[in-house]
């Protein structure tokens, strides 16, 4: 029996201008009771739909029409006329977005500007004397106030008390909620939001280690970084650089960015921040300090580092693999300090404009605004096997359980194919896809149905860590590839399903070293590759 997969795809229905594109057909047409019809009129007057009201769900009307079947229509975009129109919860234009500085400083305002444009509203960002507190006003074309958003960016940890107190409709975080956050929500009777429809991944970012642009050092191991932060290494000469004293730049102990860096690189090496450090509260101040000091080293979100002329260091892992902070590497979550950017909501009724905005952030239209903010968008990139360099060499030269025949088969099957920048991963110790992978399934299926990969075979390639028996690991990776293939096949036409192929290469092509659980988790994934049919021998 195939594993059960909890598939709760995000809902994306921000407009009803194009019925085929933005209204989801969820059942076959129902026999409508003609004397109990309702009419839904778009607020911009562009279209109206009549049908029988089936019910309400998550601020959406469920309407059975005679021509289009049963539709889900977002209540905030339409006016309902008819005796059966339900009473919609009364909301004013105000709602709050609280949490992460990384997410809230640039990304959320830029996305709100894009959302305003998509609904024909004007956008205004209002600052206050407190840099962590701003307001965004969206005004309709007729001058009426569409929304006023209280935007507060006091750190990821502040998102969850704000959700619990009801002052925020959306909480944003540059990390996944942890057990402490769950406890804060539990006080208000709110359950754990992880791996639920109330957890949304807005995009991807990463912490990058930065040095002065004239510093010749281009990569460091986590141990070397740990020794810098502990004060054991104090001069760049010890690391192959010039005879320049090292200046360590850091943030406050409550900083989420600092927590990511310390937990990923310093503390796993049994060190802590015991070296003399210069602390900063502002991201740009950190960058300016490093750019002004040839001995400086620090860390910031890549979204900001990429707009400044600093040197971005690769992380050299203990087994020799390099982890570069590239877009592709971060999209596949294979970079040592990559991180997802989250939005959280509470179960039940939600401010309709906040729901419409959050749904819009998941659309193709929103990706340009994510890229404009210098974060990692969801657009697919491609990479060839021959571009993977050290991963191929490492597989053949370092892994103790290396199998030459399997390696040769992988090279034959994947040479000339393109790897897409999307991966599927499972919840810890389960056969259930994690929340981001569920969304990836939906997006891949949508692209296949839209003809994006017509004429190509779509290979779902399973990989595993190297702990245990190679044959068993290969079989486990095959099971995961088979699972993803079955899920996608259920979401596409039979013709497209026939183009799916599941295969496993087990321990080959590790993204990270297998020496720790973080690296092993990165290596357990299912990848997507595209190739022309019959361009290689039949998969075994």
From TrEMBL:
<keyword id="KW-0732">Signal</keyword>
<dbReference type="GO" id="GO:0016020">
    <property type="term" value="C:membrane"/>
</dbReference>
<keyword id="KW-0472">Membrane</keyword>
<feature type="signal peptide">
    <location>
        <begin position="1"/>
        <end position="31"/>
    </location>
</feature>
<feature type="domain" description="OmpA-like">
    <location>
        <begin position="413"/>
        <end position="534"/>
    </location>
</feature>
<dbReference type="Pfam" id="PF12849">
    <property type="entry name" value="PBP_like_2"/>
</dbReference>
<dbReference type="InterPro" id="IPR024370">
    <property type="entry name" value="PBP_domain"/>
</dbReference>
<dbReference type="InterPro" id="IPR036737">
    <property type="entry name" value="OmpA-like_sf"/>
</dbReference>
<dbReference type="Pfam" id="PF00691">
    <property type="entry name" value="OmpA"/>
</dbReference>
<dbReference type="InterPro" id="IPR006664">
    <property type="entry name" value="OMP_bac"/>
</dbReference>
<protein>
    <submittedName>
        <fullName>Phosphate ABC transporter substrate-binding protein, PhoT family</fullName>
    </submittedName>
</protein>
<dbReference type="InterPro" id="IPR050811">
    <property type="entry name" value="Phosphate_ABC_transporter"/>
</dbReference>
<dbReference type="InterPro" id="IPR006665">
    <property type="entry name" value="OmpA-like"/>
</dbReference>
């Amino acid at each position: 029996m195939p594993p059960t997969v909890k598939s709760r795809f995000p809902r994306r229905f921000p407009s009803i201008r194009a019925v085929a594109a933005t209204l989801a057909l969820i059942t076959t047409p129902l026999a409508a009771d003609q004397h109990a019809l309702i009419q839904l009129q778009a607020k911009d007057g562009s279209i109206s739909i009549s049908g029988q009201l089936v019910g309400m769900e998550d601020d959406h009307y469920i309407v059975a029409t005679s021509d289009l079947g049963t539709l889900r229509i977002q209540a905030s975009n339409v006016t309902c006329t008819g005796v059966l129109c339900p009473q919609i919860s009364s909301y004013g234009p105000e709602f709050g977005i609280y949490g992460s500085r990384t997410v809230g400083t640039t990304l959320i305002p830029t996305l709100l500007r894009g959302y305003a444009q998509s609904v024909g509203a004007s956008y205004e960002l209002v600052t206050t004397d407190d840099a962590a507190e701003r307001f965004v006003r969206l005004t309709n074309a007729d001058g009426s106030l569409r929304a006023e958003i209280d935007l507060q960016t006091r750190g990821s940890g502040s998102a969850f008390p704000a959700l619990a107190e009801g002052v925020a409709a959306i909480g944003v975080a540059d990390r996944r909620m942890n057990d402490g956050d769950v406890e804060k929500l539990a006080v208000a009777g709110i359950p754990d939001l992880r791996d639920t429809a109330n957890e949304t991944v807005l995009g991807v970012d990463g912490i990058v280690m930065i040095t002065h642009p004239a510093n010749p050092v281009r990569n460091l191991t986590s141990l070397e970084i740990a020794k810098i932060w502990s004060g054991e290494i104090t001069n760049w000469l010890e690391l192959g650089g010039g005879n320049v004293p090292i200046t360590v730049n850091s943030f406050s102990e409550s900083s989420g960015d600092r927590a990511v860096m310390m937990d990923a690189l310093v503390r796993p090496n049994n060190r802590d921040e015991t070296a003399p450090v210069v602390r900063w509260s502002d991201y740009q101040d950190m960058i300016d300090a490093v750019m002004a000091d040839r001995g400086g080293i620090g860390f910031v979100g890549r979204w900001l580092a990429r707009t400044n002329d600093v040197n971005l260091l690769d992380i050299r892992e203990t087994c020799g693999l390099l982890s570069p902070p590239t877009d592709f590497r971060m999209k596949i979550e294979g970079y040592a300090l990559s991180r997802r950017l989250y939005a959280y909501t509470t179960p039940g009724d939600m401010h309709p404009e906040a729901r419409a905005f959050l749904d819009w952030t998941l659309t193709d239209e929103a990706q340009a605004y994510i890229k404009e903010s210098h974060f990692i968008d969801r657009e697919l990139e491609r990479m060839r096997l021959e571009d993977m360099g050290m991963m191929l060499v490492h597989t053949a030269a370092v892994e103790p359980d290396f199998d030459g025949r399997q390696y040769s088969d992988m090279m034959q099957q994947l040479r000339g194919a393109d790897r897409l920048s999307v991966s599927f991963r499972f919840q810890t110790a389960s056969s259930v896809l994690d929340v981001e992978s569920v969304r990836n399934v939906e997006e891949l299926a949508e692209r296949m149905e839209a003809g994006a990969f017509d004429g190509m075979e779509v290979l779902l390639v399973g990989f595993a860590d190297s702990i245990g028996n190679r044959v068993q690991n290969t079989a486990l990776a095959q099971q995961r590839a088979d699972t993803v293939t079955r899920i996608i096949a259920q979401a596409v036409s039979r013709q497209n399903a026939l183009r799916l192929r599941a295969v496993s290469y087990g321990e080959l092509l590790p993204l990270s070293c297998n020496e720790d659980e973080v690296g092993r988790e990165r290596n357990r994934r299912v990848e997507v590759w595209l190739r022309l049919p019959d361009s290689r021998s039949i998969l075994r």
